[in-house]
Amino acid sequence: MYKIPDDIKDYVRTTLPSIDGMLNPPSSWSTVILILDQIERGIVSNDHSIFLEIGVFKGKYLSLLERASSKLSIPVVGIDPFILEGQSLDSVKSSMFELGLDMERVHLIKGLSDEIEKIDYFLNGRKLDFIHIDGSHRLNDVLEDIAWADGAVSNEGIVAIDDFPKMRQLEVLEATVRYFLRVDCEIVPFCISGGKLYCSRREQALFYKNALLRFSEKNRDIGSCDQLITNRETAERWTYIQRFFGEELIAF
Q1: What secondary structure letter does DSSP report for 90?
Q2: DSSP conformation class of 182
Q3: What per-residue confidence (pLDDT) applies to 49?
């Protein structure tokens, strides 16, 4: 229990870095841990779950969602306009197929995040247990994406916000802060890791924070995990716990 499977470790260490896009090790490992925790606690299941990424680029993070949940057959859906230079829907599909991903599970949709109704076919009564927001980085677009995700994510699910905080993506920072100030905000942050902010309903936040600690204790061959536990054992508390909007976040 709490051990990350060797095939997932190999994928994160050897294959994932070869895919174009920005995703650092702490973000990769924290995502893997949180998904494995969802599986172990029965939050995610073949019968009722779906993962969604808003903003796919070339499929780096989407591939991680698929590999981390590879023991299941849940749909992993990405929506993106596929208009950036060197990027197309067909090329991303092709590269993901060549990586050996289960393309029966992976579904790519050409569209903007305000065309989210395009995923309705894949929902089909399923609940969104993991939503990754990495679409437009403009203030109003990010606000709308977070608001939609807050309303759409399951009661036990996770909303991950990319590029938070980054000095060259300050509109993402502003949008996130503005959203947490809204009276209708129902998610709280519980972890910050390598430029990603992870959020959930308040009643789930402690479970996810404990999972990050427990998995890290059992996987100290992973640098990010070892650093978290080393900080917890030997350093001052601020090195592994940060406060944000009144919540205590794991600094992974």
Answers
A1: H
A2: S
A3: 97
Give the pLDDT of residue 85. 85
CATH 3.40.50.150 for the 6-13+23-235 domain, yes or no:
yes
Comparing CA positions, the residue from 76, 2, 79, 69 lying closest to residue 31 is 69
Phi and psi dihedrals of 154, rounded to 5? Answer: -70, 165
* Nearest Cα residue to 57 out of 75, 76, 77, 81: 81
The Cα–Cα gap between 61 and 33 comes to 14
pLDDT in tens, 171-193: 999 999 999 999 999 999 999 99
Please, are residues 91 and 135 in contact by the beta-carbon 8 Å criterion?
no
Q: How many Cβ atoms sit within 10 Å of the Cβ of residue 144? A: 18
Instruction: For residues 228 and 237, give the distance between their C-alpha atoms in angstroms, rounded to a whole number.
Output: 11
Residue 116 pLDDT greater than 90, yes or no:
no
Provide the pLDDT for residue 115. Answer: 87
Amino acid type, 137: H
Supply 43's token pair. Answer: 């939050």
Closest CA to 133 of 151, 115, 117, 148: 148
Inform me whether the pLDDT recorded for 118 exceeds 90. no
Task: Compute the distance between CA of residue 197 and CA of residue 134 in angstroms, rounded to an integer.
Answer: 11
- Under 8 Å between Cβ of 104 and 139: no
Query: Nearest Cα to 197, choosing from 152, 151, 148, 131?
Result: 131
Task: State how far the Cα of 2 lies from the Cα of 76, in Å rounded to an integer.
Answer: 23
Compute the distance between CA of residue 13 and CA of residue 58 in angstroms, rounded to an integer: 18
